[in-house]
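Good morning C.,

I know you're traveling, so I'll keep this short. The sequence:
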Amino acid sequence: MAKERKKGRLALALGAIGAIGSWAAFLATLISPSVVPLPALAGLGFPVFGVLLLFGVLMALRFGRWRSASIFVLTVLVTAPLYRSTWGDFGIAMPVGPKSGPVLKCMSWNVRLFDHYGWLGGVKSDIMKSIEKEGPNVLCLQEHFKAASPSSFPIGEPLLMALAGGAEDPVNQHLVWAREKGGRKFGVGTWTTQPIVRREAIRFGTRSNNVCAITDVVWEETPCGCSTSISQAFISIHRTMKPWKEGCLTLKSGSECGPA
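The tokens, ready to paste straight into the viewer:
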């Protein structure tokens, strides 16, 4: 009996750790990491905290700890958007666009160089499949990557095929390279099946991957054919603030901004 009680306390302790970490990860969506960085770190650890939290719910119900179970369930409900963004579409908690009228579907993803160095176990093909499945009108990728020898690590052609989804419509792109090293390029990219009428880039004067792409896209489905300005940036805060204060911010236009 004492051994069972000890196991129950350990399980609830793990659930409590999951709950605290999940709340911190949820706060990361509300608080800028430049103000309080700790929630952002918890956000990176949410896949672990989320599992611990669900484990805590099951254990609290098993041992009849109703107060703990209520707290854990409440935490799951509040952090449901994090579960969806981490493990897929459960159809809960996330806002859904109107079902009538034209809808511009945008997808943004930090692809971490398409796992070129094998840090994530080789997920490039999974990224391409997810893009093809979602079928966005506009795709924004951070930490985009181009190998020194594109044939050795092909990205461009598979990416265009995934975005087009087998259709013959052309895919327009706006690539902004932050830096080049040994023939490899690092930056951000915007792809769309709609016309692009303006391409600009914001540079931060650093040697890291900090860069911002500004892309004006004409949404042809609207009666007026209005354009939408889409901005995306990859910024490492601690490396950017000093050049920003020194006035190193520059704006550059072009179809492909960055090292040639």
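Safe travels,
E.
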